Amino acid sequence: MTHKQFTEYFLPYSGKMYALAYNLLRNRDEARDCVQDVYSELWSKRDAIQPDKTPLPYILTMVRNNCLDRLKAIYTEPNEEIMDMLLDYDTERQLDAASDLNAILQLIERLPADQQTVLRLRTIDGLETEQIQELTGLSRENIYTLLSRARKTLKEQISKL
User: Fold this and answer.
1) Rounded distance, CA 22 to CA 155, Å?
2) Which residues constitute the domain of residue 145?
3) N or C: which end of the chain has fewer CB within 10 A?
4) Which residues, in sequence order, are CB contacts of 34 under 8 Å at separation 6+?
5) How far apart are CA 161 and CA 158, in angstroms?
6) Domain check: are 129 and 65 in the same one?
7) Total domain count for the chain?
8) Contact between 73 and 124 (Cβ < 8 Å)
9) From CA 25, how far away is CA 122, in angstroms rounded?
């Protein structure tokens, strides 16, 4: 794949890539770095990519995984910058919101793998049902059932908190 082909094939998706990265990371610079890293990885794999398929699910999965890796690195190591940021904005409401979000993310991690995957792709990544079908190989009805069960389980568990 030449540089021109690569640009024509992947560049139209940069906005969606950035939106997903920013949605997950909530930091403009980190989101830009993530998109740049994904483009770099795509460039290194350019000869193995099949140009006859739509690249969007593949690209968004790469962005999501890159963001998750970045978040893991941030939250596994004590980071003074994050601690300073939390202390600078130390309001009770924000701390409650952060703990609520953390609790919800932990509840999502307890869901069965298929429910967790479909829920994350739909709500966090913002993919449409057709894109989830293409990415996971599940039927439309199965996706709706998994989403319904996941949401019902989350509602029940949240009400217990």
Assistant:
1) 26
2) 91-161
3) C
4) 21, 25, 63, 66, 67, 70
5) 5
6) no
7) 2
8) no
9) 17
> With the CA atoms of 114, 120, 100 and 158 taken in that order, what torsion angle do they form, in degrees rounded to the nearest 10?
-40
Q: Does residue 26 share a domain with residue 78?
A: yes
Q: Tokens in use for 14?
A: 């940069």
Alpha carbon distance 98, 103 (integer Å):
9
Residue 67 has pLDDT above 70, yes or no: yes
> How many residues in the chain?
161
Smallest Cα–Cα separation from 57: which of 6, 151, 129?
A: 129
Question: Is this structure's pTM higher than 0.90?
Answer: no
Distance of alpha carbon 39 from alpha carbon 28, whole angstroms: 17
Residues 76, 122 within the same domain: no
CATH of the domain at 34: 1.10.1740.10
Please write the tens of the pLDDT for every residue from 33-63: 999 999 999 999 888 887 777 888 889 999 9
d(CA 81, CA 66): 20
